[in-house]
Structures are given as C-alpha cells and as structure tokens.
C-alpha cells in the first residue's frame, strides 16, 4: 500500500478523534453498569444463598450477548433492511468492515467514528438489557434454561425493538422518540421480566416471605456504578461529544436525584421511615424514566419526569405489587423489574411526548417538532403506539421462547426443589462468603446442604425415630440449626 493509503487507514478524513474517544468512553461506562455494576447490585440484594447465581446470570449474559452480537445480531438491529421491523442478519468480523466509517444504512445516517466503535457501543446496550431481565428471574430460574434464553431473546426480541426504533425501522420512520432506550431497553426488559416470571413460576414460599438483602454495602456499590455509568448510557446516544450530550448527562442526574428524593418522601409518608433500598428503587426509576427523554427535554422537564417516576412506580411496587393477586400469586418478579423498568420506561416514553422541546429534537439531529408543549400533540399518540408495539411483541415472543425451551428443548425453566432449598452450593458448588472456612479452632456451622437435608427429609431414621446426620449433633428448631464438635461417628437428633 502507498503512504497515502496507509495514512487514510490511520486517520481517515471522516474520523473525529474526540467523538470516537467519547463514544468508546461512553460504551465502557455502559459496560461497567453490567459488570460489575448490576452483578454486585444483585448479589447484595438477594439472600446469601443466591449471591453467586445472581452474579453468574449477569456475567454469562454479558459474554454470550457479545458473541451473538458480532456473529449475527448487530446487523439484525442496525443493518440493511430485511423487514419493516428487523434488518438482515450477518457477521461483523472482518477488518475491512470494522475499520470503515460507521453508518446505519436503513436510517440513512453515518457517524464520524469507525464501525467497531458503534458495534461495541450498541453491544453494551444489548447486554445490559438481558442483565436487567435476569433481575426478575433470580432465585429460581434453571441456569441451563437461562443459557438458552439469552441468545433467543436477543435475536427475536431485542434486535426487533432496536431496529424498529433506532436502526431505521417503521417506528423510527413514524417519528417515535426514544433518546437512549426507554422503550428499546427498559420497557422491553420490564415486559420480558414480567412475562417470563409467570412462565418460570415463583420462588420458594420461604424465599418470598424472607428475601432480605444479604449485603447492603455491596448493593450500594452496584447502585453507585449504575447511576454514574448512566452518564455514558444517555450521554453517548447523540453519537458525538455534542452540546446535546451535555444536556442529556445533566438531565439524567437531575431526574434521578429528584426521583430518589421523591421516593424517600413517599416512604416516610406511608411507612414512617426512609429506606435505603427504597432510595435505590427511586434512583433506578429516575434513570429509566429520563432515558427516552434525556436530550429532548429542558431541565425543568427532567425534574417533572423525576417527580412522576418517584411516585407512580412507587404506587405500582408498593400497592399493586404487594396487594394485587396478579403479583402475589401468579407473577413473582424477584427484584421488581416490572415496576422499575416496565412502568417507569412506559411512563418516561409517554412524558417524552409531552415535554420534548423543539430545540432538543433538532440538537439531537431529528426533525420532530417537539412534544405537546410545542403544540405537537400527535407526538403523545406516537409514543403510545411505540410502547404498545414493544409490550405486545415482548409478551408474544418471551412466551414463545419460554415454551420452546421447556417443551421443545425439554429443559426445565425452574430449578428443582432441592436446588431451591440449597442455592449456590447445589447449582455451582460455590458459596459467596467463605471468610471462616478452615480456620483452626473454629467448629464449622451447619452448612446449607445439611439444613436442606433436614427440611426435605433426605436423612435416615433409626429404629427409635431419631434422625442420623453423619459426624454432627444437630438440633432442629427454628430451621437454622446448631452445631457442636462431633463426639462419635454418628450423632442423634430427636425429631421433636
């Protein structure tokens, strides 16, 4: 190759190094939201026996999504037209394709950074969507079923929403506004979480009645990474280090802070005391609610959205989630993804249709003349149409995927009762916290497997009606058990 050709590969005319640097930074922020952000948030929020399984579901989804993304899924969401709601699948792995200028062929727009940057940026969004869905399925979904669910849902659900709204599909052409994924990511993950939770079935009754977080400090580390990482989540979607990116970052933090404070006030009014877990929920609903509106609305619009996301999802979670039989008997959403993402995502998209400004729309690079406050009431109806499509598509396809896994692949969606009782040790052969293991002079306490053995009656009974546990003398009382140093090869426990 000539010197000019080599220079063109190193610094092509279309490349803006500042925009490329910001886009890669924003993508890394989004990736950090999944690992370690949501990994440790989930691990802290669940019971100790589910900490590893919760992290592992997120960790697996992140890696599996990337492999599927570069082999076929990216082009489904952002490639050449195939159908009004999905692009033509194919790999993006050759150097010539990765190094060329980024473009969205169905939308007819291009960016001044390489395709590799766009592919990674959009991958981080796809991955976090699957990780969010996992939050609804924790503490009972069969891991093998999850391994199959991830590529199927990515292919048949996520990519359809991404192409329809961002890649140049029919909702994009209609003018539905979704700045950074209120519909594509949060409404879709919340709907899939709700529907999938119904298909999988509930957690153990004991887990539902007592699901206290095992590590609030770890939970807060994840919450902090999630909040600050959202600067890349929303700030990266103009595909440039533009003035509107700055607006999106500021609005993201304004809405989130106001939503969190509103949720705290709601807790104080109705429960008499503030809750840090409630504050985290309010933070998440604020982040989700501002996502479809981030660079479209003014600062005062972000505050109004924050007030709405601190109240309406609060009622959804604390009234409907605790009193409606739909949630108490049929849909066991472990971490409330339905309320924090489905409700907040739909709410944010609707409010975008009201509060989007003409200036914000033009600064983002679209021609929509703002929302209802600008005299464009039609935008509200467009937002409703977009939400209904995402909800309906996910109800159908999440159900079909669950049916396929269970009845065609013959993989149970739910763990066995024994696995549900034991948790991480039965599923992965690992425990999350092992600080006192093999310490000289410390008698080991009764482990999870032995406790579960007592509960499910897998011990043997001698002729006196006493239970025999090898090497330990254990008293069965409140379910937690006690342990003493073994005196003989076998000890007896009375069943009473």
Overall number of strands: 7
Total tally of structural domains: 2
* Percent range of helical residues: 55-70%
Low-pLDDT runs = 458-496
Query: SS-based structural class?
Result: mainly alpha
**What is the gyration radius calculated from CA atoms?**
25 Å
Beta fraction: 5-15%
Strand order of the largest sheet: 5-6-7
C-alpha geometry = globular
Give the helices and strands, then pairings.
Blueprint: H1 3-10, H2 17-45, H3 51-78, E1 81-83, E2 86-87, H4 95-99, E3 101-104, E4 109-114, H5 115-137, H6 143-165, H7 170-174, H8 182-200, H9 205-209, H10 216-235, H11 243-271, H12 276-290, H13 299-323, H14 325-330, H15 337-355, H16 358-364, H17 378-408, H18 417-422, H19 424-428, H20 448-456, E5 460-461, E6 466-470, E7 490-494
Antiparallel strand pairs: 1-2, 3-4, 5-6, 6-7
Helix pairs in contact: 2-3, 2-5, 2-10, 3-5, 3-6, 5-8, 6-8, 6-17, 8-15, 8-17, 10-11, 10-12, 11-12, 11-13, 12-13, 12-15, 13-15, 15-17
């Amino acid at each position: 190759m000539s010197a000019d050709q080599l220079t063109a590969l190193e610094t092509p005319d279309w490349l803006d190094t500042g925009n490329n640097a910001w886009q890669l930074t924003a993508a890394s922020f989004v990736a950090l939201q999944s690992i370690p952000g949501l990994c440790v948030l989930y691990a802290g929020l669940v019971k100790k026996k589910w900490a590893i399984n919760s992290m592992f579901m997120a960790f697996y989804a992140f890696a599996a999504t990337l492999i599927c993304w570069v082999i076929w899924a990216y082009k489904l969401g952002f490639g050449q037209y195939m159908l009004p709601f999905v692009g033509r699948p194919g790999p993006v792995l050759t150097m010539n394709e990765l190094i060329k200028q980024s473009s969205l062929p169905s939308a007819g727009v291009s960016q001044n950074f390489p395709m590799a940057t766009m592919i990674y940026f959009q991958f981080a969004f796809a991955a976090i969507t699957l990780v969010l869905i996992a939050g609804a399925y924790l503490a009972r979904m069969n891991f093998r079923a999850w391994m199959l669910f991830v590529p199927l849902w990515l292919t048949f659900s996520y990519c359809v929403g991404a192409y329809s709204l961002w890649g140049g599909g029919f909702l994009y052409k209609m003018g539905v506004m979704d700045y950074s994924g209120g519909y594509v990511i949060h409404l879709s993950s919340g709907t899939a979480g709700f529907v999938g939770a119904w298909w999988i079935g509930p957690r153990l009754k004991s887990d539902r009645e007592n699901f206290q977080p095992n590590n609030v400090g770890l939970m807060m580390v994840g919450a902090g990474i999630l909040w600050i990482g959202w600067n890349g989540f929303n700030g990266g979607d103009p595909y440039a280090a533009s003035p509107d990116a700055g607006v999106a970052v500021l609005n993201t933090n304004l809405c989130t802070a106001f939503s969190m404070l509103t949720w705290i006030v709601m807790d104080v009014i109705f429960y008499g005391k503030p809750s840090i877990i409630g504050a985290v929920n309010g933070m998440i609903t604020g982040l989700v609610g501002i996502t479809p509106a981030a660079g479209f609305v003014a600062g005062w619009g972000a505050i109004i959205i924050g007030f709405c996301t601190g109240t309406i999802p609060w009622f959804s979670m604390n009234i409907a989630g605790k009193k409606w039989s739909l949630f108490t008997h049929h849909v066991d959403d472990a971490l409330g993804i339905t309320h924090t993402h489905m409700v907040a995502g739909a709410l944010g998209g609707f409010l975008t249709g009201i509060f989007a400004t003409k200036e914000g729309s033009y600064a983002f690079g679209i021609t929509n003349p703002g929302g209802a406050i600008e005299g464009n009431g039609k935008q509200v109806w467009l937002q409703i149409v977009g939400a209904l499509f995402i909800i309906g598509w996910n109800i159908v396809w999440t159900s079909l995927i669950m049916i396929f896994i269970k009845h065609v692949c013959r993989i149970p969606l739910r763990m066995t009762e024994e696995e549900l009782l034991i948790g991480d040790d039965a599923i992965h052969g690992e425990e999350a916290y092992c600080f006192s293991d093999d310490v000289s002079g410390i008698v080991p306490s009764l482990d999870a497997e032995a406790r579960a053995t007592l509960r499910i009656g897998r011990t043997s009974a001698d002729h006196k009606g006493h239970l025999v546990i090898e090497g330990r003398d254990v008293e069965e009382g409140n379910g937690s058990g006690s342990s003493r140093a073994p005196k003989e090869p076998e000890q007896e426990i009375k069943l009473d």
